[in-house]
Amino acid sequence: MRKLAGQTMVYGISTVLVRLLNYLLVPYLTRVMGRAQYGVVSHIYAVIPFVLVILTMGLESGYFRFAGKASGEGEKRRVFATAWGMVSLVSVLFFVLVLLFNGTIAEWMGYAAHPSYIWMTGAIVALDAVTAIPFARLREQSRSGRYVLLRLVSVVVNLALCFFFYGWLPSLAGRGILPWAYDPAMGPGYVFVANLAASAVTLLLILPMCGGVAPRIDRRLARSLLVYSLPLLLSGIAGTANEFIDRQMVLWLTPGGSEYALEQLGVYGAVIKLGVVMTLFTSMYRLAAEPFFLAEFKGDDFRRTNAEAMKYFIIVSIFIFLFIALFRDLFALILGRDFREGVWILPIVLLSNMLSGIVLNLSFWYKQTGATKYAIYVTGTGLLFTVAFNILLVPSLGYVGAAVARLVCESAMVALSYLLNRRYCPVPYDLKRIGEYVLLGALLYGAGVLCGGLTGWLRYLIYLVLVVIFAGYAVRRERIDLGGLVKSVIRRGR
């Protein structure tokens, strides 16, 4: 457990830095754009993860599993070359299709006046897919320093270009400098230009880190990888749809016209960004846990370790929930004034993100045993709940209905994942202890809600005391050696 915690913290500290830099775009863009323009960014960015899952075909998990079983470095290189070759081939074919049908796709998505949005998005997705397996290799080799450095460079390039395009370029063009580079009609399109440049830079920088291995497909190995990974692909499609289709539903089902729907989507997308800390924790945990749990494990060791990991994941998630949910009016100041109206749904968003992380923990048993077909059952069920409850709630409640539908979806996936776990690979989760922390968290949050009408400074002081009570109780109850954990992080970060 200390190894997993150390790796999670190494990825966590560095990922926090990367995400915080990237997060600077949220307060900036919500101030230089109107709600409808930011709605365009939220709309298109909701599509990117969905397509990225299709192009990577579940081969990141497949690479971790087969590299973990490899008998030597030569076999690991062959697994890497084959997985990378498959993803690269599919990505190139995808981008060619985007170029051929660019106008048709733009018209279908409602951006006929801006077809450049589509081909740029296609290029971003293709480049990110091509780099996905090399990034997975860095994680498998525990080269977290290089992994984070590349991510950091990508974010800095993206951030700098966004500030340039929206802050400096209009002024420069007005003075006759670079007038050809500025087109006011591009609007949110400059966000995609910046992202495309960052993705291209990332690809150029990661190629020298591939150890001289070129994409090359071994047909026999490719078949084995696909047998393992294709269920994860189908699951990934449904899972990504679960996470991002709510934004499409807000756009399609909100009454009042397309302009109003885009405004509502802009508010919803901005509020979701405020839940980034919970998402960030889940992401940094996944970065460490996937290669950790998909390596060779004996059955009992896996079950015991997975049970402990689940407990600590929930403890940290509840702490994050309390901190953000109680201080949500302060977090709302990150957003532009026009986007703050929806901040009251932030606790719902945070709970959904926490449940998503629990589903991740419950997925490791079937990934580790190779029974990846169960991933389809879980995410497919979630997708059914997502679509049904969005159709039911969004027309009357708008983005609030979308947030509630996401919570119902994640709850359904947790329930089914747990039932499958109990039947096929019983992990001894400490439900009594977990329930204890959930109950304490609920009571502390309820106490915070009751104090909501107090004077500002007194209210925030009480909120802080409530968060500290939970953290102190968890450290004492679990006998957590904070000093030992810090030493482990320092040792693994070197």
From TrEMBL:
Membrane: is it a keyword of this entry? Answer: yes
Q: Where in the cell is it found?
A: Cell membrane
Membrane spanning stretches = 9-30, 36-59, 79-105, 117-136, 148-169, 189-213, 225-245, 265-288, 309-331, 343-362, 374-393, 399-421, 433-451, 457-475
Q: What is its main location?
A: membrane
What topology does it adopt in the membrane? Multi-pass membrane protein
* Keyword Transmembrane found: yes
Q: Which UniProt keywords apply?
A: Cell membrane, Membrane, Transmembrane, Transmembrane helix
Q: Please, which domain of life does this record's source organism belong to?
A: Bacteria
What is the official name of this protein in its record? Membrane protein
> What species does this protein belong to?
Alistipes inops
